[in-house]
Write a structure and sequence with these properties.
The structure holds two protein chains of two kinds.
Chain A lengths: L4 E14 L2 E14 L3 E5 L6 H8 L8 E11 L5 E3 L5 H7 L4 E4 L3 H4 L6 H13 L3 H14 L5 H4 L9 H13 L5 E5 L7 H18 L2 E6 L2 H7 L2 E6 L2 E7 H6 L4 H8 L44 H5 L4 E4 L5 E4 L9
Parallel strand pairs in A: 3-8, 3-9, 6-7, 7-8
Antiparallel strand pairs in A: 1-2, 1-4, 4-5, 9-10, 10-12, 11-12
Helix pairs in contact in A: 4-5, 4-7, 5-7, 7-8
Chain B lengths: L8 E14 L5 E16 L4 E5 L6 H8 L7 E6 L2 E2 L5 H7 L3 E4 L13 H14 L7 H14 L16 H13 L5 E5 L7 H18 L2 E6 L2 H7 L2 E6 L2 E7 H6 L4 H9 L5 H5 L31 H5 L5 E4 L2 E3 L8
Parallel strand pairs in B: 3-8, 3-9, 6-7, 7-8
Antiparallel strand pairs in B: 1-2, 1-4, 4-5, 9-10, 10-12, 11-12
Helix pairs in contact in B: 3-4, 3-5, 4-5, 5-6
The chains are: A alpha/beta, B alpha/beta.
């Protein structure tokens, strides 16, 4: 584990036992998060990006889910290192909210509809720091001011339904950041929001995480959001990470055919202003595979235009590549051994 | 009868208001949600007009009103010069052949108990049954098969039920159904927003090919400016039940005029880290105000950084700044 690293995931596997068979939702995933870094986890629906993050916090519902293997090493500021998958439930509970907190996609279903938002914002900090009611209320008001809520003294006593979607997401952010966590996991935080509100929320996450040097894991399907927010990116496909790179490397020199295809298939609002204007969009043929009974071949080979014989029979190894920052790709086209 | 303006679709002063009712036994109307509040636009043959805006701006309601799936409070919807709003139910049914809808949600817009081929053939069967179309059952089945093929669905899928298809394939079924009667106008309401990126481009390309091959005219609704810009020839930006700007797709990004359009464009994340870093975002204050409040003045003025005294007093009308570029903002209209 390198010096400035705060979280390291090693060989994480999460499986779901379903009626149609064993689903390997997260299949041998490793990545590292540095202190203060913003890491993007990108992929299409069902690629396992949300399950990865639920697994980090041990929030996968069991049954049917099960964390089948791997390590999640968390290094606290005092230098102590713990495997979150090995420690007791009590210990994880202490970490959740205090050291690692999470914001979800849909703020309406993740807030308690019958509790005032002030009470909900203060809950974590009351629990972890033992604040009294009055202090907690003052802290809630302070947090609400911080997230740009107009008139926080009055709104602290409102219920979730009295807020708009964007404001609810701000409340979620206030909740998540109230204990000044080391890591913030944001699972599609702006997917349910309009684009102008999305800009507000991303701006807020960016400035608050910079202020407290909070590391952020940003889960999203939107490559545009990633480009503006993240330092580095993991691209996921069918339960695996297929490419890891810094944001500049990934966007300007993608290596994996899936990443290339994904980047070429998004319409861009600035396209008309550039030379390639009315060019036809590329589209990746086919659809993402079912994760039931996946064999050990490259998961992308049925849709890949550069697929070779070996892709159909063996899983490509993760190969380190030179780039502006650390980068690696799992593809036989770039593998150095075994071809 | 209105004079034929040469446009396939000409919408004038369209209003759709929903009453807000109170009381359990005796209902009384206490107000109106002004979902669409005076919208004018037109679509020429072969054109694709994109209607873009944030949730609650009235873009879908406008589409549903044009499709006559939503009753109209006021205004005219002239389709080939004929006002759809004034048609009798029988005439309307016959007219529906010419305008069909592709819906947003491919999960809920297909009957789960019908097979794919039957879903696609249903419009034909309905028209054949009511005597508006002379086609035998064999012909209908053949037509459905060729539509499936045209929309990229294998013929072996004909006997499958909707739940056996992926989201992208379901949307293909929805598109094939919309094309069954050979419409002139296709109203596509967020046809790709429920789909993943890699599937989204497949569907967009399919729609583009169909438009070219079948000479279709599109009214395309989306909240995603990049999608709209890719697909459409002309774009109308909506805000709070009104159109604030219309222009051709190529010049929207290059030269937005209305402060709302500018903010909207600057908020769209670009998949390019270098451009993102160099960008200055216009962060709009606050949320979209409620459409149930009767307001004087420009609907955008509370969130506008360039609001003037005049904006609070009267609402600006949509006016041409140059050929093909209309905007409703006093900044561009001399006092």
């Amino acid at each position: 584990m390198s010096a400035e690293s705060i979280l390291r995931v090693e060989g994480l596997r999460t499986e779901f036992h379903t009626e149609s068979g064993l689903v390997k939702a997260v299949n041998d995933i490793s990545f590292e998060l540095a202190r203060g870094e913003t890491l993007g986890l990108v992929g299409e629906s069902g690629c396992g990006k949300s399950v990865t993050n639920l697994s980090i916090l041990r929030l996968v519902q069991s049954p049917p889910g099960k964390i089948a293997g791997g390590k999640v090493l968390f290094e606290a500021l005092d230098g102590s290192r713990r495997d979150l998958l090995a420690v007791s439930e009590e210990e994880v509970r202490v970490l959740r909210g205090k050291n690692i907190s999470m914001i979800f996609q849909d703020p309406l279903t993740s807030l308690n509809p019958v509790l005032r938002v002030g009470v909900q914002i203060a809950e974590a900090i009351q629990l972890h720091h033992g604040l009294r009611k009055r202090e907690a209320r003052a802290k809630s008001i302070e947090m609400m001011r911080l997230i740009g809520m107009p008139d926080p003294e009055r709104r602290v006593d409102d219920y979730p339904h009295q807020f708009s979607g964007g404001m609810r997401q701000r409340v979620m952010i206030a909740m998540a950041l109230s204990c000044k966590p080391d890591i913030l996991i944001a699972d599609e935080p702006t997917t349910a929001l309009d684009v102008t509100i999305q800009a507000q929320i991303l701006d807020l996450i960016k400035s608050l995480s910079a202020r407290d040097a909070t590391a952020v894991i940003m889960i999203t399907h939107d490559l545009g959001v990633v480009a503006g927010m993240c330092d580095s990116i993991c691209v996921m496909y069918a339960g695996r990470i297929v490419e890891k790179a810094t944001v500049d490397d990934l966007f300007h020199d993608p290596l994996h055919p899936y990443t290339k295809g994904l980047l070429a298939s998004i319409p861009r609002v600035d396209a008309a202003a550039s030379a390639e204007g009315s060019q036809r969009l590329y589209s990746i043929p086919g659809a993402p595979p079912s994760l039931v009974g996946m064999s050990d071949c490259c998961p992308f080979h049925p849709r890949c235009e550069s697929a070779m014989g070996i892709c159909r029979s063996r899983l490509p190894p993760e190969t380190v590549h030179a780039g502006k920052g650390p980068r690696s790709v799992s593809c036989w086209l770039h593998a150095k051994e075994g071809r | 009868m209105m004079p034929d303006t040469g446009f396939l679709l000409d919408v004038r002063g369209l209003k759709v208001h929903f009453p807000i009712e109170k009381g359990i036994v005796v209902k009384r109307t206490v107000g109106h949600v002004r979902a669409v509040d005076g919208v004018d636009f037109h679509i020429a043959r072969g054109e694709a007009l994109g209607l873009v805006g944030e949730s609650g701006c009235g873009k879908s309601t406008t589409a549903m009103a044009v499709a006559r799936l939503q009753s109209i409070t006021a205004g005219k919807v002239l389709f080939e010069g004929r006002d759809l709003a004034a048609l009798a139910p029988r005439e309307l049914r016959a007219a529906r052949k010419d305008f069909q809808v592709v819906f947003q949600d491919p999960y809920s817009s297909l009957d789960p108990r019908q097979k794919a081929a039957d879903i696609i053939a249903e419009p034909l069967r309905i028209f054949a049954k009511s005597g508006l179309l002379t086609m035998s059952d064999t012909e209908i089945r053949g037509k459905a098969a060729s539509l499936m093929d045209r929309c990229g669905l294998a013929s072996s899928f004909a006997g499958r039920y909707p739940h056996e298809f992926s989201g992208g394939q379901r949307q293909r079924i929805g598109i094939a159904r919309a094309l069954a009667l050979g419409p002139k106008l296709v109203i596509a309401d967020e046809p790709v927003s429920a789909l993943d990126v890699s599937i989204q481009s497949q569907i967009l390309n399919l729609l583009k090919d169909l438009q070219k091959d079948l000479d279709l005219t599109f009214l395309f609704i989306a909240h995603d400016l990049a999608v709209i810009e890719y697909f459409c020839t002309r774009i109308a930006v909506m805000y709070l039940g009104r159109i604030v700007e219309t222009t051709d797709a190529a010049s929207l990004y290059r030269k937005p005029l209305h402060p709302y359009t500018k903010a909207l464009l600057s908020a769209v994340p670009l998949p390019d880290p270098v451009k993102e870093r160099g960008r200055r975002r216009i962060i709009l204050k606050g949320d979209v105000p409620s459409p149930s409040v009767v307001r004087k003045g420009c609907p955008f003025r509370e969130r506008c950084s360039e609001a003037m005294e005049r904006c609070a007093l009267e609402a600006p009308a949509l006016a041409a700044v140059e050929a093909g570029h209309e905007v409703s903002c006093f900044l561009y209209q001399g006092a």
